[in-house]
Design brief:
With 83 residues, the protein is mostly helical. The protein has five helices and no strands.
């Protein structure tokens, strides 16, 4: 079992972040990132779109597998705020 699976298993048992980091001897930030940050954004976006709720945010290409993005160079030429 990898670290993230162990963290999620303990979270399902309603353990707090502090309890999880102490039991797995990990930094609190590592536990927090595994539970709350980054990986859940794509799922949230998908569920919001299913309910026709739109939002604006920064999208990281490495978080959305299967999506085709323009390369960094062409995006830099266009500037910020342009799709």
């Amino acid at each position: 079992m990898n670290i993230k699976e162990a963290i999620m298993r303990l979270k399902k048992k309603n353990k707090t972040i502090r309890d999880i980091d102490q039991s797995l001897v990990l930094p609190k930030s590592t536990v927090w990132n595994a539970i709350k940050k980054k990986n859940h954004t794509a799922l949230l976006v998908h569920r919001l779109l299913q309910q026709q709720i739109y939002f604006v945010g920064t999208l990281r290409g490495n978080r959305m597998s299967g999506c085709q993005f323009e390369d960094e160079k062409s995006l830099a030429k266009k500037g910020r705020g342009i799709c």
